[in-house]
Specification:
alpha+beta, Beta Polymerase, domain 2, 3 domains, five-stranded mixed beta sheet, two-stranded antiparallel sheet, 17 helices, 7 strands, globular
């Protein structure tokens, strides 16, 4: 673990417990690395609020002012301070991209933009719930708004979207209501009656809604089975209060299991970040007496996610000083490898090579379920079957024998993406995929 990574964990712990942080005494360059890392994990507002008065951090501003006095200008090239939805690999630029000449003020302005955006988003989201309720529609609120309320200063925990769970039969009614309220469907051709997930945004607003009829993709060979664990969840909901609005959500046991399996889904795909760890551990701590941890552990074990979940709790306990359930604490596991992956992934592992490596890890899990060697995942990412490519290459629907042509086009498309993103390459994708297969083996997800 690098010094900025260790400092990030320490500052996050202080923020979660509203404690005075210990100055990690980083250099200006190390602070900039830490702030970039915090930004890609969507933890920058929490971390900067906690550390803004530390003397070693204030040296960034002094260094900038000295540079300004010598050359009269600051090296600041980012087009705007708007919140970026993209994660970037460890050690690369994120947020306001300060460079050696930028001021601490730029980071603070970036945080103010994120917090302001979140305040508007939350206000519009709560108003949307009230409007839907007035139309006789009551969705279940998941993740973001519920988890945000767990933090000492909720608006410092930013999120991009808000997730709603609805009954199967109400898809068309919700679709019509959201359009009537001014939202726009991201996919105008989506089928609100049969589709399991639909997304909407409010033009000119940060409000972004994901509407779910299932918690996990029912057609996924890897994740589809997760839905069975939530049978009857819509019948055992609870009410929570966000600001002055009452929201319906999953019962604490169901919600915790969902948070863990949602993290597990991203873990199998391309990774997940530190904020998800803190969400899970804070939720566990807040609803401790209302959670059936035996049921949660059994649900995780059915999907071979029990050692993974234990490692998540081990990170929360060891580095964030958040308590872990005894049932998970008693599982023998080492959190080190998972923590390394968490720190490297950003919020949802959306760096280009990680995204492409998902075919390797998902293929390995699929092969393991069918009793085959995990090496099939490597073949899968290079030469996926025709059914996986028909959406991109429609000619395969009627002419599957042209699959080699699709493979060649796919390689050409990857070359274009490599040119666009610069440092990404199939070699890096395969390396990450192999490393993450070993990670799945470490936590017992595959044999």
């Amino acid at each position: 673990m690098t010094k900025p990574e260790a400092a990030l964990l320490s500052l996050l712990r202080a923020a979660l417990h509203e404690e005075k942080p210990v100055d990690p005494e980083l250099t200006v360059g190390e602070w900039e690395t830490l702030l970039r890392l915090a930004d890609v994990h969507k933890l920058l507002p929490l971390v900067l609020d906690s550390s803004c008065k530390l003397s070693s951090l204030l040296a960034i501003k002094r260094g900038c002012e000295k540079q300004l006095s010598s050359d009269g200008s600051a090296a600041y090239s980012r087009k705007d301070d708007a919140d970026s939805h993209d994660d970037v690999p460890r050690g690369t630029s994120a947020g306001p991209g300060p460079g050696s000449n930028d001021c601490l003020t730029k980071w603070k302005n970036h945080v103010l933009a994120q917090v302001g955006r979140q305040a508007i988003q939350e206000n519009e989201f709560l108003n949307l719930i009230l409007e839907l309720r007035a139309r006789g529609l009551e969705p279940l609120v998941l993740k973001g708004p519920i988890c945000r309320a767990l933090y000492p200063k909720p608006l410092l925990r930013p999120s991009v979207d808000d997730d709603l769970l609805i009954p199967d039969a109400q898809g068309p009614a919700f679709h019509a209501a959201l359009l009537e309220l001014g939202l726009t469907a991201d996919d105008p051709g989506a089928d609100p009656e049969n589709g399991w997930e639909l997304s909407y945004h409010m033009p000119g607003s940060p409000l972004y809604i994901e509407l779910h009829k299932r918690l996990f993709d029912p057609e996924s060979e890897v994740f589809g089975a997760c839905n069975k664990l939530f049978s009857g969840a819509l019948d055992r909901t609870v009410s929570v209060r966000i600001q002055d609005v009452s929201l319906r959500t999953l019962a604490p046991t169901d919600h915790l299991l969902f948070l863990l399996l949602h993290a597990f889904k991203h873990f199998l795909h391309s990774g997940f970040g530190l904020r998800i760890v803190s969400d899970i551990c804070l939720f566990t701590d807040r609803f401790w007496d209302r959670i059936d941890f035996t049921a949660v552990l059994e649900g995780c074990a059915r999907l071979r996610a029990d050692r993974f979940a234990a490692a998540v709790y081990r990170i929360g306990k060891k580095y964030l000083n958040l308590r872990a359930p005894a049932l998970f604490d008693g599982i023998e596991t080492d959190e080190t490898a998972l923590l390394e992956d968490v720190l490297a992934s950003g919020l949802h592992g959306t760096q280009i090579d990680r995204l492409h490596s998902a075919n390797i890890t998902l293929g390995a899990v699929r092969d393991s379920k069918q009793g085959r060697s995990a090496s099939g995942g490597l073949r899968y990412t290079l030469f996926p079957p025709a059914k996986e490519l028909t959406g991109v290459y429609p000619f395969l629907d009627n002419r599957p024998w042209l699959l080699p042509v699709a493979w060649l086009r796919r390689v050409g498309g990857y070359a274009k993406r490599r040119k666009r993103y610069g440092s990404q390459s199939p070699t890096a994708t395969l390396r990450i995929g192999k490393e993450r297969i070993r990670l799945l083996q470490t936590y017992g997800v595959i044999d």
